[in-house]
């Protein structure tokens, strides 16, 4: 019994949902890194030097997002939580020349790490970066009814305690058949562990993630897929 608990503790500290570094390495080296744009690779390497570099979007999850954006033929997107901008740059590279991204994050310093790579890629004109907490920005967008149902795609990688608050707003902003994707919905695999074996630093947002996952699984306004990629990616398609 003690061995099983220790195995769970080990799992809770391993950010690889697959629980196999070798398998993840195989996936990345076989199909992700060879197709990763050079500017994305450079930004990923620059982010790795940041003390919070683990917060960046995983490149395998990013590859899936890029595919979704192209399948949707997305032109108007919104991003809640930018950090250094890996997912932002990926989105900008995946949408048309005249596409637009509303990107919201209060930490401009982190965003500026990625800014040189965004400029180098020639996609800065697609990005409207707003230095602010997200809820006031989303509420301001909803103050104008003309904004409802106009976004093709939304991506959320921000404070987990506000995921449901973001969801209630984004579901109105995204068009019917549009997609909202939420990152970190497996929270390092801790959602499947007893709280007693999860580190204190992860417990609060683990509880928030559990509550969000339960609530969104019952939301009749959308279809969803819960994907065990990166740190967990929940993909929601608005149906009403």
Automatic annotation (TrEMBL):
Single biological process term from Gene Ontology: methylation
Entry keywords, A to Z: Methyltransferase, S-adenosyl-L-methionine, Transferase
Keyword presence, S-adenosyl-L-methionine: yes
Annotated Pfam families: Methyltransf_3 (PF01596)
Domain of life: Eukaryota
GO molecular function annotation: O-methyltransferase activity
This enzyme's EC code(s): 2.1.1.-
Methyltransferase as UniProt keyword: yes
Entry-linked Gene3D superfamilies: Vaccinia Virus protein VP39 (3.40.50.150)
InterPro entries, per database record: Cation-dep_OMT, SAM-dependent_MTases_sf, SAM_O-MeTrfase
General function of this protein: Methylates caffeoyl-CoA to feruloyl-CoA and 5-hydroxyferuloyl-CoA to sinapoyl-CoA. Plays a role in the synthesis of feruloylated polysaccharides. Involved in the reinforcement of the plant cell wall. Also involved in the responding to wounding or pathogen challenge by the increased formation of cell wall-bound ferulic acid polymers.
Family statement: Belongs to the class I-like SAM-binding methyltransferase superfamily. Cation-dependent O-methyltransferase family.
PANTHER family cross-referenced by the UniProt entry: CAFFEOYL-COA O-METHYLTRANSFERASE-LIKE, O-METHYLTRANSFERASE-RELATED
Name recorded for this polypeptide: Putative methyltransferase
């Amino acid at each position: 019994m003690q061995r099983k608990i220790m195995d769970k503790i080990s799992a809770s500290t391993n950010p690889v949902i697959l629980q196999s570094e070798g398998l993840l390495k195989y996936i990345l080296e076989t199909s992700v890194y060879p197709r990763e744009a050079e500017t994305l690779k450079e930004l990923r390497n620059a982010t790795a030097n940041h003390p919070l570099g683990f917060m960046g979007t995983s490149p395998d999850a990013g590859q899936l997002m890029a595919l979704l954006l192209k399948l949707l033929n997305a032109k108007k997107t919104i991003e809640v939580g930018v950090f250094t901008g890996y997912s932002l740059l990926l989105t900008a590279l995946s949408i048309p020349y005249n596409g637009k991204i509303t990107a919201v994050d209060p930490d401009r310093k982190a965003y500026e790490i990625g800014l040189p790579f965004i400029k180098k890629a020639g996609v800065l004109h697609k990005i409207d970066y707003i230095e602010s907490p997200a809820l006031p920005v989303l509420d301001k967008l909803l103050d104008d009814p003309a904004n409802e149902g106009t976004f093709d795609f939304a991506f959320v990688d921000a404070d987990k305690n506000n995921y449901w608050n973001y969801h209630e707003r984004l579901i109105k902003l995204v068009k019917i058949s549009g997609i909202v994707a939420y990152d970190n919905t497996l929270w390092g695999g801790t959602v499947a562990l007893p709280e007693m074996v999860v580190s204190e630093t992860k417990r609060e947002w683990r509880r928030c993630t559990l509550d969000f996952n339960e609530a969104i699984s019952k939301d009749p306004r959308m279809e969803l897929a819960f994907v065990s990629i990166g740190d967990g990616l929940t993909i929601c398609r608005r149906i009403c």
